[in-house]
Amino acid sequence: MLNQIVAVPVRTQQRVAEISWFDDIIGGDTEYLGVLDHSRRSNFEHCKHIAQTADRLGYRKILLPTAYTVGQEVLTFAAGVAPFTNNINLITAIRTGEYHPPMLARSLAALDHMLEGRLTINIINSDLPGLREDPELRYLRCAENIEILKQAWTQDEIDFKGELYRFKMAADPVKPYQQNGGPLLYFGGTSDGAREICAQYCDTFLMWPETEEAMYETMQDMSRRAAKYGRTIDFGLRIHVVVRETEDEARMQIRKLLKHFNEQRAAEIRARGEDSRSLGVVRQDEMRKHADAEGFVEPHLWTTIGKVFSGCGGGLVGDPDQIVHKLNRYMDMGIRAFILSGFPLIEEAEIFAKYILHRLPNVSLSELHNRVPKTTPVTPLTTAILT
Q: What is the value of pTM for the model shown?
């Protein structure tokens, strides 16, 4: 663990924590790790219940992930659940390249209006379903998609000449509800190419759980990269959490999660994830090799979850004071957004809210940066591409 913490330069200088929950529309909600729970499989009613629970409890945002092999389509689900939520912001994961860029801009703008500005975009830079693509192609496609989105949302005309896309067309139909540049862009990726995209274009860099030293090193690198473009960015952490009244009870809970654990079956479930070969997952696999017999790699950071789920492979485990202390350390480093989850999702959302949510400076970054207008939005003047 870091002995002395000095926050890296960040976009949001206020010491706040945007606390979000996770809606497993891709079908991994379960009571026991490595067990496919058919009573909690991905369907609209169950996932709507997760979103409404997080909304009622006061979570600021909720992540809607994307996958091709399992679960529900993100934009369709987001549009369907929008009328059933009141305050919560939907973080919709978009894999660039799956949609025709001008129509993606239009779809997201329409969704932004349905939600009256309660929309954040999580940009995903990965292979398209069924393909194994050259990384450089993916980075180029991702960057060009983002530039087209920003033009569509901030200018009267899309006038773009790239290597993959060329458009000269009116942007009038695709102005979003959020007039100050459109929805915030969150982004996750560990490779050099992915980091450059986030540094140049996006608002918040999302990380998966690693040791404090490893995450701090990543944050320093990302701050330096963003500075090259005259920018600062925020940092977010996607992580699981197990909190109970005492540490012993929290440890008992993780042992319960492993009650029906089977290494072979867990590996099969893990392999379903399209990110199971990514550099970020490899880094978490390496971290897990240094964990103790119970899977802890540093105080309260448990890594065994990564044996079942690619992507987010670690969780915080402890009593309320211990978890708050750990989250405060992360905020001291400069992390401003937390996307949390537990097993199972609805029950653990209730428990975290009971013990911890009211103890944190829980603020939406979208509202903090005035992306959500206070009055009915008006058509903006033509502006240059935002970087």
A: 0.92
